[in-house]
């Protein structure tokens, strides 16, 4: 969680001051959900996430320099700087897709889960998406198929209460996303998405069900995003008092305080965690800024199984 926060903060600082250029959709405030996925899933478990996936990628083990490198179009990126922020993937870490299309992830996750089941693997696929995605036809088709075939997939809705700039109260008649699960005969669970322990417990149960052949679960994690839909979003659509209350429930300092109170860590130990996160971010950024942009000969690489030389 500390690394996710530090990585997001540093991007905001660098873009805001003109130090570097990148396009990104902040995940600040949603760290507890991604951290829970990171400690619950195995390396061979697969993840499908979205363009707002910086925290998810970190949680699943994608090196920070490969994430930053992709965002800034450098050769050290996960796709050698050609995928951009919306399309970061690293199959070796189980990250199969980051999609820029709202609601496009669930059908892909269902396909991955179907493949695992047909191969007799005990691998689980988790698909992460926002509340807005649950209003798309692709989500409902995927949920229906996953439930019908008892596929090993977990649908994780990171409900930050806004679908881009529209509050969920304007897009759904029901109050809870988790209630949609009943229509497909799968469990629907709603948890505090700012509590990493609560998310971990609920996710572990859902992953366990999926891994043992009991089928999918819809897990709704209620959270908030602190920086709007995209970096630079002035957030005029969010009532100031709502944003203030959300920041007061910031999951990172909240969990830090819990660890101190429970005697799990000392203040010095937690300070070293924070310092380590800041150092890791700066090290990754130096590596990325020193790397070149993709060369012209990268244009047709990874496009064809057998590359054809075209004049440029």
TrEMBL record:
InterPro entries given in the database record: DH_E1, PDH_E1_Alpha_Subunit, THDP-binding
Keywords: Oxidoreductase, Thiamine pyrophosphate
Pfam family, one: E1_dh
UniProt cross-references to SUPFAM superfamilies, sorted A to Z: Thiamin diphosphate-binding fold (THDP-binding)
Residue ranges of domain Dehydrogenase E1 component in the record: 19-295
Keyword check for Oxidoreductase: yes
TM segment ranges: none
Cofactor: Mg(2+); thiamine diphosphate
UniProt-listed Gene3D superfamilies: 3.40.50.970
Annotated PANTHER family: PYRUVATE DEHYDROGENASE E1 COMPONENT SUBUNIT ALPHA (PTHR11516:SF60), PYRUVATE DEHYDROGENASE E1 COMPONENT, ALPHA SUBUNIT BACTERIAL AND ORGANELLAR (PTHR11516)
Protein name: Thiamine pyrophosphate-dependent dehydrogenase E1 component subunit alpha
Organism field: Mycolicibacterium arenosum
